[in-house]
Amino acid sequence: MNAPSANPKTSVPERKPDDIIRVRLVEGYDVVAYSFGAGDDVLFCANGGPGLPCDYVRDSHSVMADRGFRVVAWDQLGCGQSDRPEDASLWTLERYVAEAEQVRKVLELGKVHFLGQSWGTWMGTEYALTHQEKLKSLILANGNCNIPHLVRELNRLREALGPETVAMMQRHEAEGTLDHPEYQAAITILNYRHVCRLDEWPAAVNRSLEDWNMGPYMTMQGPNEFTYTGNMKDWNRIPDMHRITVPVLLLSGLYDELTPAGTAEMHHALPNSEVRIFKNSSHMPFFEEPEAYFDCLETFLRKVS
């Protein structure tokens, strides 16, 4: 995602964390976790990226603390207030899953409701397949667990820009000139259609984007939201998702870059899942339709707690 130039004219007062905790990982690096509220039910949030600070998911979902839940998010290794090593061998899904488990254990969270958003859904799915006994439920928001299928969907979204624009984008991708203004203009249009449809993006979103560490992102995904060239490009967990038996909530926006078609594929693979599509949202319904989003999330959590 590229941050738009406009900043919100007004901002909602941000809730400060009740606790900020540094967690030392077995790799010898520190990550920083943020905790809100004191409920017995823990909403454990993994944000998108990779390489993004957790601000946009942390600040938005902290409202669940007012609904009786403890909310915990963390800056994943390589971003935000956490350490930022430059060792590319650290940027793997398996290591990030192990990181999430270390954070959960150090903070003594017990069984959690794991909420993964965007790339966080990949982590959440892999976490569920590795540590399902540590989960009360799994929330996969704006995700797709079949990257080859996602690439086909992203190409379909790009085609809506018209054949000349698609040809232009493909030429710049082949030539490695992704910073060209006309290519970036096309990406900006796609971002406003399929990442966040608000005219002005929330401060927390812009803050995360402005501090994006592209090292993990380039290694694992690629140069932008619509081009997958990293070590995750062939990842597909759909054949294994039948093993996830905890309750699962699948959330998507009608105009989501990680399209409802991917959500449907996950739903059909999971034995105990339900779906909500937000009809006026793209990739961030928690900002685009917050009342509907958080009401839906609370209803699910109370049902499965």
From TrEMBL:
Superkingdom classification of source: Bacteria
Signal sequence residues: none
UniProt GO molecular function: hydrolase activity
Keyword annotations of the record: Hydrolase
Domain AB hydrolase-1: 65-290
UniProt similarity note: Belongs to the peptidase S33 family.
Protein name per its UniProtKB record: Proline iminopeptidase-family hydrolase
Species the sequence originates in: Kordiimonas lipolytica
